[in-house]
């Protein structure tokens, strides 16, 4: 199991593909690999990076690999239905983004799963980063220290702010680790951290209303893939009350957010070619 980057993630997928579909002999035609992607984030940057990473390992969609995408599911029931649909599509490998989708894939299918997860060990997806065991492997983004940097950045931007909001899904193990790091850093900076907990669409609506009714003086948005499908609503809530905010993914900035600071989901080779 590796940390960071879609290129590394694509390599993890490649290794899993090799275990499911043995490489054909040189004198035999290559078989078309079928994989299913359960991606509730709907991130275009991640999807482009994933395809680019696969191409770097010799796989091209439409030539020697078929990818079945399921992007719109958010609730547990919707994710279970999407996972079941992928199984019926006869994919041999499941790729997931986020802890929620990964949990559904591991619990509701018998397929090998390659995941992108914040803290797969704490979530129970892996025994350890070195030896994950079971049917799952993938890429970990255990980065609680980046949340402290986000707090420092927003504190530099709004040095008089004494109430800093933290929008996060505390049911996510990574968010719990981030919260502990942020609380310690907040005490050092002399600011009060206010948590807005939202794990689903209903809770997010409640949290955004609370943000508008009693706005904090600054805001940190946790890097949760669920929030990627609600970037516009989150950004507009902050903009409406003129709350300086730092976000977990660049998609928020593309949707009008102030700034982002987190792991770049595009592969290193793709970044080099576009800079």
Task: Report on the architecture of this protein.
By secondary structure, the chain is of the alpha/beta class. The protein folds into two domains: 139 residues, Response regulator (Rossmann fold, 3-Layer(aba) Sandwich); 117 residues, Rossmann fold, CATH 3.40.50. α3 packs across α4. The relative contact order is 0.14.
Topology, element by element:
Layout: E1 2-3, H1 6-20, E2 33-38, H2 44-56, E3 65-70, H3 76-88, E4 93-97, H4 99-108, E5 113-117, H5 120-123, E6 136-140, H6 144-157, E7 163-168, H7 173-189, E8 192-197, H8 201-213, E9 218-221, H9 231-240, E10 245-247, H10 250-254, E11 259-260, H11 268-274
Parallel strand pairs: 1-6, 2-3, 2-4, 4-5, 5-6, 7-8, 7-9, 9-10, 10-11
- Compressed to H and E, one letter per element, the order equals EHEHEHEHEHEHEHEHEHEHEH
Calculate the mean pLDDT score and round it.
Answer: 82
Identify the strand order in the major beta sheet. 1-6-5-4-2-3
The count of helical stretches stands at: 11
- Biggest sheet descriptor: 6 strands, parallel
Structural class: alpha/beta
* Count of β-strands: 11
Helical residue percent?
40-55%
Instruction: Give the percentage of residues in beta strands.
Output: 15-25%
Query: Given the C-alpha coordinates, what overall shape results?
Result: elongated
Number of domains: 2
- Gap between N and C termini: 28 Å
Q: What is the CATH fold-level name of the largest domain?
A: Rossmann fold
**Superfamily at the CATH H level of the largest domain?**
Response regulator
Radius of gyration: 19 Å
Low-pLDDT parts are 2-8, 21-29, 267-275
Which architecture of the largest domain per CATH? Answer: 3-Layer(aba) Sandwich
CATH class membership of the largest domain: Alpha Beta
